Amino acid sequence: MDRTELVRQIEEYCPYNEQEEADRRIILKCLREEDDIFDRGNGLAHMTASAWVVNSGRTKVLMVYHNIYKSWSWLGGHADNEQDLLEVAVREVKEESGLAMVRPVSESIYSLEVLTVDGHVKRGEYVGSHLHLNVTYLLEADENDALFSKADENSGVAWFGLEDSLRASTEPWIRERIYAKLNGKLKEQG
Predict the structure, then answer these.
(1) How many angstroms separate the CA atoms of 139 and 33, rounded?
(2) Whole-angstrom Cα distance, residue 84 to residue 23?
(3) What percent of the chain has pLDDT over 90?
(4) pLDDT at position 93, please?
(5) Average of pLDDT values for 100-110?
(6) Above 80 in pLDDT, residue 190?
(7) Minimal CB count within 10 Å: which of 32, 93, 94, 184?
(8) Cα(first)–Cα(last) distance of the chain, in Å?
């Protein structure tokens, strides 16, 4: 997938709520105007991909204990100049969880978010505050497969029931606006 196809998919995506509608406009503006939007070298904003990884029964979600945010969170990461964000999401899940097999429930976008990232230190260097222009995909994995932490990013990987996933997060805005939305969409899909 290239930038043109991603723009088309985001244009055709039907926002779930006001947050997604507002964030969709920002993401599209940046995709159209910023040449380096897929590169984390863009210190203002850059593209990321996340995954809401569920089991086959859609009763559990996979989360990692994120070392920077000090919270249980979804999986995902920077595009790093890759424009196929579904591929980025799948790769990040495998890297962060140790799962060998993960598959898209659908190749369609599951959710859109503009996420604020506070300044922090990563690998000994300061990273200034910036925005993640995030595309989320719904992925599925076997809850019985072996899990492994990626020590430089997380210190735990575990499956949580849908309600437990909300309680596990210590980030109020993410928990209430993003994870609750993702679970709500999942329940609506049956």
Answers:
(1) 30
(2) 19
(3) 88
(4) 98
(5) 97
(6) no
(7) 32
(8) 29
| 126 Rama class: left (phi>0) / alpha (psi -120 to 50) / beta | beta
- Report residue 176 as tokens: 């209430």
Q: Give me the helices (H) in the chain, please.
A: 3-12, 18-33, 85-97, 162-168, 172-173, 180-189
Question: Which uninterrupted H or E stretch holds 112?
Answer: strand 111-117
Q: Is the alpha carbon torsion for 23, 24, 30, 33 positive or negative?
A: negative
Domains assigned to the chain: 3-189 (3.90.79.10)
HSE, CB side, 13 Å, CA atoms: give it for residue 130.
Answer: 19
63 φ, ψ (degrees, to nearest 5): -135, 160
Residues 6+ apart with CB under 8 A from 51: 74, 75, 76, 89, 90, 92, 93, 102, 136, 137, 138, 139
The pTM of the full predicted model, rounded to 2 decimals, is: 0.95
Identify the three-state secondary structure at position 41.
Answer: coil
